[in-house]
Design goal:
alpha/beta; 4-stranded mixed beta sheet; 3-stranded antiparallel beta sheet; 12 helices; 7 strands
């Protein structure tokens, strides 16, 4: 278990931690082996060793924290320590090293008790020591990469209107807690990448011929907005979604729970929300973040149909890192930690609702 004393590497997973329930397209796999509305526009990279992995499914004691010497506690340990002390029912005396480890154990348990049941995305929590006048900060990081496993929505023989209703709900809401991009995000990026922002076939065709030197006689073979749209499976098209009144009762209940938990998460004040991300605030803690890809690491676009497009927009991220911060919250007061944990819990309830929807067995509906 570690606490950060230097800027973190959000895009690097903790060593040995598997990525969960995701499928990557071809170039993402090859390179790997060698939010949400507003989350699709940011990023950064560092060459130094990541200095933070406070809470996650893999826990190890970092070399960044001296345990053999009586080193003073840093500001983030002091802040967390006052929070831990407020929860203690008995008075005990600790050396600095014992206090440091006790603080981390208590906070780590509190986080894992909340995030432990979220399995369809691999999440961890990082605590940063603020530099200068900055207070400590806590980030939620998503270590999963590639296409989110959509389960029955993508692979079953359930009626298209049911699958489309489930997919539409995830597409509209999942970005509230996960760094994920959807089809419209992909289309917008590809429009700039292939057609200089064009969204209609004629303008796109003209651009490809005039500025990319394509042969006009081969224009029927070109990738155009309409050909990209035509590759969407029926369950991806919102117009195919059945209204709530025509859905099976259990599916209706799962969607209702997703909307309810999403609404509760959306009502949290940003300054006390573990899942809120403000790029400008994070930049103060992680200089150089703007040098990385602005693409989130997760997508709900099926790579089977859009492998080329996902590879093209993901190439920069595989080289310089993706924007995998699910939330960032500065903490200036120990009392804020309880608020932060409550908001973390609200986000976990929402993610569990999404997980339950994806893992639903359609044969039981």
């Amino acid at each position: 278990m570690t606490m950060a004393t230097r800027p973190i590497l959000p895009h690097q997973p903790a060593a040995g931690r598997p990525r969960r329930s995701t499928r990557a397209s071809s170039s993402w796999i090859a390179t790997g082996e060698a939010k949400r509305p507003g989350r699709f526009r940011r990023r950064r990279a560092y060459a130094s060793h990541p200095s933070a992995d406070l809470a996650g499914r893999v826990v190890a004691l970092s070399g960044d924290i001296p345990v053999l010497f009586d080193a003073p506690l840093a500001s983030h340990h002091k802040l967390m320590g006052r929070w831990v002390a407020s929860r203690e029912t008995t008075a005990e005396r600790y050396t600095r090293d014992q206090a440091r480890q006790h603080i981390e154990r208590v906070f780590n348990k509190a986080v894992l008790d909340i995030l432990g049941s979220v399995e369809f995305a691999d999440l961890r929590v990082v605590v940063l020591q603020g530099e200068g006048d900055l207070p400590p900060g806590i980030a939620v990081i998503c270590d999963s990469m590639g296409q989110l496993d959509l389960g029955w929505i993508e692979e079953s023989d359930a009626p298209i209107p049911w699958r489309a209703a489930a997919y539409r709900a995830l597409e509209q809401m999942l970005g509230r807690a996960l760094p994920v991009f959807g089809y419209q995000d992909l289309f917008d990026e590809i429009s700039m990448y292939y057609w200089d922002g064009a969204t209609d076939d004629e303008t796109a065709r003209q651009w490809i011929i005039e500025y990319q030197g394509a042969d006009p006689d081969d224009s029927e073979e070109l990738t155009l907005p309409s050909t990209m749209e035509a590759r969407r499976p029926e369950w991806m098209i919102a117009a195919n979604a059945a209204p709530s009144a025509r859905l099976p009762k259990r599916l209706h209940q799962k969607l209702h729970e997703l909307r309810k938990t999403h609404g509760a998460l959306g009502r949290l004040p940003p300054e006390r929300d573990a899942w809120h991300f403000d790029f400008e605030v994070a930049y103060d803690y992680i200089p150089g973040i703007d040098e990385c890809s602005r693409l989130p690491p997760l997508t709900i676009v099926p790579v089977e149909q859009f492998a080329r497009e996902v590879d093209d927009v993901g190439r920069h991220g595989m080289e310089f890192g993706f924007m995998d911060i699910a939330g960032f919250c500065p903490l200036s007061d120990p009392a804020r930690i309880d608020d932060w944990l409550l908001s973390l819990q609200a986000g976990a309830r929402f993610l569990r609702a999404a997980q339950d929807l994806i893992q639903l067995d359609p044969t039981t509906l």
